[in-house]
Design goal:
The protein folds into 2 domains: 2-205, Cytochrome Bc1 Complex, Chain A, domain 1, CATH 3.30.830.10; 228-430, Cytochrome Bc1 Complex, Chain A, domain 1, CATH 3.30.830. The chain has a 6-stranded mixed sheet with strand order 1-2-6-3-5-4, sandwiched between helices. The longest helix has 18 residues, at 113-130. With 432 residues, it is an alpha+beta fold. The protein has helices at residues 44-51, 63-70, 95-108, 113-130, 134-146, 160-163, 168-178, 194-205, 254-266, 285-291, 324-340, 345-361, 366-379, 382-386, 388-393, 397-407, 421-430; strands at 2-6, 12-17, 23-30, 74-79, 84-91, 184-190, 228-234, 240-247, 296-303, 310-318, 413-420. Strand 4 (74-79) and strand 5 (84-91) form a beta hairpin.
């Protein structure tokens, strides 16, 4: 049973009792991520997340980690397109510590000039580390090309130019705008008594004043008028292909069908950004067409639940001695087959089973269930989460065929190549 309540300052709470182990997980979700950023301050949400770990007057720097660890718990924070979230999982008799920490840093996070400067170096180093990964470089270029209007255009880490110039005052102003109770959801799952927990949470969080109302995100990405292509060159010796289609948001009825389509095509990817096991995709169409045939060393399909329409991506690692052209042509052959031949009953049943297993695996523990309850509230609603398995069971072969023909169109996609410099040079020489 789920207990739901809202404080006068606007903060929402969800509590689920789970008594199979003496553990509880508490999350605070803020409805802010890179989706809320504007040019000049890209990456600021992720940076504010880092500042939450710099301490407060009540919990000086390092004290939160020490206390959580000394009580046998764990903690984390994460920022993505639609959200920033913080969590603590602890023995249930110590979960009050998590409540006190989150209530305190909701209003008392510090933005000391020296700490801001130190964290600038950390985040820039993180960005530079990402740039050593060719798949990051390729994904960033594809994402930027796919979105020209909507703020999903930029990666959560932010652009280097902005990371070098964001100021301390901008960070604190952003914190005051977005990281208050008016924009937050508290989620508690575990070995607790809901009514007692509710009283304590009200005691801690109700006195916090609501902040200014965040500006709404109104940009709607217009339909593409044709395929977009990007080429990234680098020093790595391996080539990579990414094909990304504009895809439905989590609340769209087609979202569950897309997950089944992806399971048929590439194998079911983890449905959770936080955790979840990988699926064996060796029976998928793209594995057989690319990996088993030795065109590629790996292939994956990526479907993520998002608040606004995002991307469905197919990513392949080209085998040495093979070419990007060969791999892309093989992918296109499988896409055409998916658009012309209904999936078989066996394929459909296996795909549904894989997606169901991923869903179940990602909701096993108190921590994971708290993740799902919060994520559903941010990108959709609780009915979306509660009805997921029923909607999954209702997907038909005809649904998959119709969706494949509607969204897997060249005009709806951005194709990216990561091409080793040596290969690119040889290609240019061959063309002269």
């Amino acid at each position: 049973m789920l207990t739901r309540f809202v404080l006068e300052n606007g903060m929402q709470f969800l509590i689920k009792e789970l008594h199979h182990a003496p553990v509880a997980s508490f999350w605070v979700w803020y409805r802010v991520g890179s989706r809320n950023e504007t040019p000049g301050i890209t990456g600021i949400s992720h940076w504010v997340e880092h500042m939450f770990f710099k301490g407060t007057p009540a919990f000086p720097k390092g004290e939160i980690d020490r206390l959580i660890s000394s009580h046998g718990g764990s903690l984390n924070g994460m920022t993505w397109l639609d959200f920033t979230a913080f969590l603590e999982t602890l023995p249930s008799n110590h979960i009050d510590l998590a409540w006190r920490i989150e209530a305190d840093r909701m209003t008392n996070a510090t933005f000391d000039e020296d700490e801001v400067a130190a964290e600038r170096t950390v985040i820039i180093s993180e960005r530079q580390g990402n740039e050593n990964d060719p798949t990051f470089l390729l994904e960033e270029e594809v994402q930027a090309a796919a979105f020209r209007v909507h703020p999903y255009h930029h990666d959560t880490i932010g652009n280097m130019a902005d990371l070098e110039t964001i100021t301390r005052d901008q960070l604190e102003s952003y914190y005051r705008m977005y990281y208050g109770p008016h924009n937050a959801i508290g989620v508690l799952v575990g070995d607790v008594q809901a009514e007692a927990a509710r009283q304590r949470l009200e005691e801690l969080f109700a006195p916090i004043p609501r902040g200014p109302e965040p500006p709404p995100v109104r940009q709607v990405e217009p339909p593409q008028r044709g395929e977009r292509r990007v080429i990234v060159e680098g020093e790595e010796t391996t080539a990579y292909l990414q094909i990304s289609y504009h895809a439905p948001a989590a609340l769209d009825p087609d979202f569950v069908t897309l997950r089944v389509l992806n399971a048929v095509l590439a194998g079911a990817n983890s449905i959770s950004l936080f955790s979840g096991g990988g699926s064996d995709n060796r029976s998928s169409r793209l594995y057989k067409a690319l990996v088993a045939s030795e065109l590629a060393t790996s292939v994956a399909g990526i479907v993520s639940p998002t608040r606004d329409p995002y991307l469905y991506s197919i990513v392949a690692t080209v085998r040495t001695g093979r070419t990007l052209v060969e791999v892309e042509e093989a992918v296109d052959r499988e896409l055409r087959r998916l658009q012309t031949e209904p999936v078989t009953a066996d394929e459909l049943a296996k795909a549904v089973k894989q997606v169901r297993a991923q869903f179940a695996y990602s909701a096993e523990s108190a921590t994971n269930q708290a993740y799902w309850l919060g994520l559903a509230e941010v990108v959709a609603d609780q009915a979306w989460f509660d009805s997921f398995l029923d909607r999954l069971a209702a997907v038909t072969a005809e649904d998959v065929l119709e969706l494949a023909n509607r969204i897997l169109q060249r005009r709806n996609r951005t194709t990216g190549w990561y091409q080793p410099v040596q290969t690119a040079t040889h290609s240019e020489e061959a063309g002269t």
